[in-house]
Amino acid sequence: MIHNPPTLIGFIITVVFYGWAIIEGILQLLGMVLHNPALGWALLPYNPFAVKYIAAFKPPSITHLFGTDNLGRDLFSEILYGTPTEALISILVVGSAVLIGGLIGMISGYFGKYVEEAGMRVTDMFLAFPAIILALAVEAAIGRGAINAAIALMVVWWPTYARLFRAETLRVKTQHFIDAARLSGSSTISIVFKHIFPNVLTPVISYATIDLGNVILSYSIISFLGFGVPPPYPEWGRLVSEGFQYFPAPAWWYAIIPGVVITIVVIGLALLGDGISEYITSGGITA
């Protein structure tokens, strides 16, 4: 993968994104625990919450790399400060989708018949609605906020993984080592989790990597529509939404730059996921 330029670019973008999210997230958490919010922006050029009207709508420059917003806040600092939320939600949603969808998909594929029919019909019910629309409906019912947005996305994100795990389980369960496990007296739980799960997980890895970007994009849409964390906490999607009020003048950068950042991260994860998929297909990882 290292010798594949697109994959290498995707890897670098992914490492930078999640690496910074971890560092900044730890600082914000320490700030909360120690009742010292300033720790959250200790590594940032500016306090992302500091209002300075005299500096409003400053274009990108050496002083303000991404320019300033309508309240004079440094856009670069706001984007960096909001990174942990985007990263955490992507991990939570994809992780829960793998667990929930994986469990339903493997049980359906392994047992077949009525169990498979019931599991797949429930899955089809969720797949019948566009995920983002259903997520908005769920969040409208439970309330706004980052946690509720994550829950809403978790509710609608697992069906695709259920289908994927089911298909892979149907393939794996016909292998001879599964028959050997049955003949050796292994329990159903042991066969599913010790033999089937590791072998169906490999092809899921590349899809999940790409899907991290899809979650970030979907969460950005949710926050763009005003269903994310309420102001003044900086969210990438809401920054785009607020910036559109001042596009193209007096501040074209207000909406464009956060949108570009979202695009770069999503493309980076897609490039890495494609690279992993090619690596698996070429035999770099064997099930």
From TrEMBL:
Predominant location category: membrane
This protein's GO CC annotations: plasma membrane
ABC transmembrane type-1 domain span: 87-273
CDD domains, sorted: TM_PBP2
SUPFAM superfamilies listed in its UniProt record: MetI-like
One Pfam entry name: BPD_transp_1
Keywords: Cell membrane, Membrane, Transmembrane, Transmembrane helix, Transport
Spans through the membrane: 7-34, 87-110, 122-141, 147-165, 212-231, 251-272
Record GO biological process: transmembrane transport
Compartment(s) where it occurs, according to its Swiss-Prot or TrEMBL record: Cell membrane
UniProt membrane topology term: Multi-pass membrane protein
The organism's place on the tree of life at top rank: Archaea
UniProt family annotation: Belongs to the binding-protein-dependent transport system permease family.
Protein name, entry field: Binding-protein-dependent transport systems inner membrane component
Species of the source: Vulcanisaeta moutnovskia (strain 768-28)
